[in-house]
TrEMBL record:
Keyword Nucleotide-binding listed: yes
Organism: Paramecium primaurelia
Protein name (record): GTP-binding protein
InterPro entries xrefs: Gtr1_RagA (IPR006762)
GO CC, any one term: lysosome
Length: 305
């Protein structure tokens, strides 16, 4: 089964920046120095020791009518297409038309490929109603373009993102989960873990990229994701200063509202991060037991898949 990703978008839309920041740890302020991508480039992604795929980034001026054998081969292996629109580059006519052409081209090579559109470079400080207006405008423009070309049957999922907050990590995570064959199994395992320990929310993170591979079925709050993502930075910083905290790689932080963030390494490069109320941590040995059970269950899921 091929689970690769193809990324398209006009020049300077932000494709390269996202890839470099997430998977190559480029500092955000250095993204302004990146040169435009002039040809198709690929990045091999290894999330932990069990998840492997490639991301193919196509140039912003790539001629969709002149695909060469390597580009055709890349599209044939992709299960997901991500198209990036620069939200600050109005009007969107050219970007919308290129999106439609990209969908047509990729669907010819990989008919079951999912289509996702990142409305990128959205100012994190603008009001939510302004973000919604922008989202609705671009959704309508794309819907009209697809309908005009008898492609209204194609589903496109939309994600509003910025590299200056956690939204790019949150939504890239959600897209990545679409190609993981065991997300639902891990979610069920997380639900069981939460119930046993009276946990409020849990995420399974890949540490290096800070992408989350799964979460429980409770309502998703971006604030919870942000807290857990920042917990990884704290753990890494403390580990760099004091060395490994313990053999299991565990740490806890008490928040101002009385909640506790619990960080636990459960597999190579993968950590379980949970939020629970302090009064529910009366029996730490029970938490430790259930973490071990979760670790064993996760190992079985990876082994089977």
């Amino acid at each position: 089964m091929n689970n690769d990703i193809c990324m398209f978008g006009l020049t300077k839309s932000g494709k390269t920046s996202m890839i470099r920041v997430i998977f190559q740890k480029l500092e955000i302020f250095r993204t302004f120095q990146l040169d435009p991508t002039n040809r198709m480039e690929s990045v091999t992604v290894n999330l932990g020791s069990h998840i492997h795929f490639k991301i193919y980034e196509f140039s912003g001026h790539y001629d969709l009518n002149d695909s060469q054998p390597p580009e055709i081969a890349a599209m044939e292996t992709c299960s997901l297409m991500i198209y990036v629109i620069d939200s600050q580059a109005e009007p969107f006519n050219e970007a919308v038309q290129y999106l439609r052409q990209a969908i047509q081209t990729v669907k010819q090579r990989s008919p079951h490929c999912e289509c996702h559109c990142f409305i990128h470079k959205v100012d994190p400080d603008i009001e939510d109603n302004k973000k919604n207006e922008l989202l609705q405008q671009i959704q309508k423009d794309i819907s009209d373009e697809l309908s005009k070309n008898s492609m209204n049957y194609i589903k496109v999922d939309f994600h509003v993102t910025s590299i200056f907050d956690h939204s790019y990590l949150e939504h890239f995570s959600k897209v990545i989960q679409r190609i993981l064959p065991y997300s639902q199994s891990i979610q069920t395992l997380l639900d069981s873990f939460n119930l046993s320990c009276k946990i409020e929310k849990s995420f399974l993170f890949e540490i290096y990229s800070k992408l989350y591979l799964a979460s429980d079925s409770q309502h998703f709050h971006s604030t919870n994701f942000q807290l857990c993502s920042e917990m990884i930075d704290v753990f890494i910083d403390v580990t760099c200063i004091y060395g490994k905290l313990d053999d299991a790689g565990q740490s806890q932080i008490k928040l101002s509202d009385g909640s506790i963030l619990i960080y636990q390494t459960v597999n190579e490069g993968i950590s379980l991060i949970s939020i629970m109320k302090s009064e529910n941590l009366e029996r730490p040995f029970l938490l430790e037991y259930n973490i071990n059970q979760f670790r064993q269950g996760l190992a079985q899921i990876f082994k089977i898949k």
